[in-house]
């Protein structure tokens, strides 16, 4: 998209001075609230082969869009995303906030930290568009720019490392010193020549630590730096549109959207959690008021279509369909082991679409409700749900 200087805006005319332009872009990004910013020339991705090997191993699961020729090509060379792109500006925004105490009351689910405030896709895209406007003002002419967040085909963590923001850690996330891994990344491609920022590569990395690899409840790490997304709770509760494999449901615990475990055990994040971080987190990403981190599961199970829309509005939870959320809630209720959930789960087993019914049956099995399951089996017509009920009854 072309970004033009606003009418009457004083043009700084820095287009002929790549170093001065870089300094201006960094200052503008900081003024927009980004915690880290780095600038690099567009270049072929260094770890593209590893990405292709990851795809070939099937670790992307249902995310088949990652393997389309256009997607793979763009991840090799960002010029597929913006013709004539010369410069990549990589920005990081921190969402690190203290973990609240679990509120009292009925069984509660858990939402990943990044998803407790406004949808970071919206926040990043708006800030990057404003940064592109700033670049147009700085060079005094329209510039072609493309804002990318994690839905765009860019190996963003590798690019962030190349731009000096931090390092790609064994848990596959970017760790930015002073911010930990509680950051979201956004990139801006520009058709303008800008000097690279000269950040030193980060020296202190994972070393001999392997806490994240050992803590993952579903065993999703094939090895350091290699994640089998099909086993990751983030994938299972968000990208996955079908059933959560029965063998993994117990390990999902009460997490209903994403998972932070491999970040929470990381020593780089422990320092941030203890208040030793170097930045105040972005206010836009601060947790919404109320029990956003730990919502009441029984209330979620009763959300109608309109209430669901309100609950997910402008948050990253927009990525879920209602049946996915209710599927996740059923699994969490099965793991919370609170028999008070039996009436609501029975109701779901009678009324909701098959995906939810199947997981409600599993949860009722965990709660020992044989009467409810037997009654449902007598009237259930869907083969997959019948199979779940029979499995829950131990038959
Ligand atoms: S997010 Fe959770 S499930 Fe996924 S790799 Fe990390 S610890 Fe494992
Ligand atoms: S827990 Fe240890 S191995 Fe994992 S990302 Fe953090 S420092 Fe690296």
Describe the protein's architecture and organization.
This protein has helices at residues 18-31, 48-56, 69-76, 120-139, 156-162, 211-215, 233-239, 246-252, 261-264, 267-276, 297-301, 305-312, 322-336, 342-351, 354-366, 370-379, 383-392, and strands at residues 2-3, 36-41, 87-94, 110-111, 143-148, 167-168, 174-175, 183-190, 221-223, 226-227, 255-257. It is an alpha+beta fold. It has two domains: 1-288, no CATH class; 296-395, Leucine-rich Repeat Variant (Alpha Horseshoe). The protein has a five-stranded antiparallel sheet with strand order 1-5-8-3-2, with helices on both faces. A two-stranded parallel sheet has the order 4-11. A two-stranded antiparallel ribbon has the order 6-7. The protein is elongated, with a radius of gyration of 23 Å. One iron/sulfur cluster binds at residues 216, 218, 220, 227, 232-234, 259, 261-262.
